[in-house]
Amino acid sequence: MTTRRLQPAALALAATVLVLGCLSGRTLAEQVAAPAAVTWDVGALSKPPREYPAPGFSAQDVRALFYDGLPWKGKPTRVFAWYAAPERKAGEKVPAMVLVHGGGGTAFDEWVRLWTKRGYAAISMDTCGCTPGGQHNKRPRHEMGGPPGWGGFDQMSDPVQDQWMYHAVADCILATSLVSSYPEVDADRVALTGISWGGILTCIVAGVDARLKMAAPVYGCGYLGDNAGWGKGRGPEESRERWLELWDPSHYLAAARMPMLWIVGTNDFAFPLPSVQKSYRLAPGPRTLSIRVRMVHGQGQGAAPEEIAAMADSLFKDGQPLAKITGQGVDGKYAWVAFASARLIAKAELNYTCDKGAWKDRKWETAAAGGFHVLAAAAGEVKAAVPDGATQYYFNLIDERGLIVSTEHVTREGP
């Protein structure tokens, strides 16, 4: 293993920050972290919002409701949601999941049922002032809906408090407050997961709402401006730049101290691995990665990973945790990963690409354990020869449950 040492300039900077932090009474992490671009009245949002019936909406084993959102352009708003709790013993409290849909989506009753079958209360809300029905990207709006969604690039000249991102983050915090107020829910065991745009919101909310005990963004991250295609076709360049100044999750992740599970695909068109890596490195809490080769981008695929439930169970229900990466590095031409796992690691894979250019177009190859490249998978360590010409690589460890934990991806500077 290699011990990393700070260069003199970095040491001087760290020392200066530490001294200033001591003088100001702030921690080193707080000094290093960039300030949030936007703030919310979390104290007010932490109070459960008023709830209303939602006549005309019904689905199997779930309850439809509206709850108060924030005012939009001076008018009151309401947020549609599905909610359900699992069967439980009298007086028993259960953990809860807050479910944040992605672009073109809405509140999904089947997503709620997925979690109630796992023993969790769950709430899935529409963040765009719509209700279920219609088609992808064409959901019916209701008369008290807040700002329409999917980034709000066309709202950059509006007051911040009237923009979709501001309301969508508040909707998530209010949903947490509402579900935490129910007598069957243990308010100390509430987590958040979101898909795509919901993953972006999850990253922001994780840095804003400290009540959450876990956050799992699925295809979501910060540093979105690093992706040359981000925001193209969504308005003039100045609007995209303003959006990044206000809403990029990199402004908020440094305050996210809860355990986070990051799930993404190698070729995701919206969230390339370098931006994901910078994001999870920014969040100071415990992190677990699950990187799938060519994972398809979609609501069904984003809700499906069992790693989310396994991590939640390990935190909330005495379940066995996912494998933990304890180290990774290079020894000559071999890459290695050290790990600890309560469950048998059934398979290890070295995933690599020899391509450059757009991340979404790179071809990834997999060398399975016991195959051509992997040498050993015993005693908590795997070693593999990195193929000549590989530009990036990472390991996947797959336990006997079929659950995937990944190392960070590594970029090679030369052959």
Key descriptive features of the protein:
415 residues, alpha/beta, Rossmann fold, nine-stranded mixed beta sheet, 18 strands, globular, disordered N terminus
Structural class, judged by helices and strands?
alpha/beta
Number of E strands: 18
Tally of contiguous helical segments = 10
Could you name the CATH homologous superfamily of the largest domain? Alpha/Beta hydrolase fold, catalytic domain
SS strand fraction: 25-35%
Low-confidence stretches: 1-33, 369-378
How would you state the average pLDDT, rounded?
88
Number of domains: 3
| Helix percent band | 10-25%
**Top CATH class of the largest domain:** Alpha Beta
What Rg is obtained from the alpha carbons, in whole angstroms? 22 Å
Largest sheet properties: 9 strands, mixed
CATH architecture of the largest domain: 3-Layer(aba) Sandwich
Global shape: globular
CATH topology term of the largest domain: Rossmann fold
Walk across the major sheet and give the strand order: 1-2-3-5-4-6-7-8-9
Distance between the termini: 20 Å
Order of helices and strands: HHHEEEEHEHEHEHEHEHHEEEEEEEEE
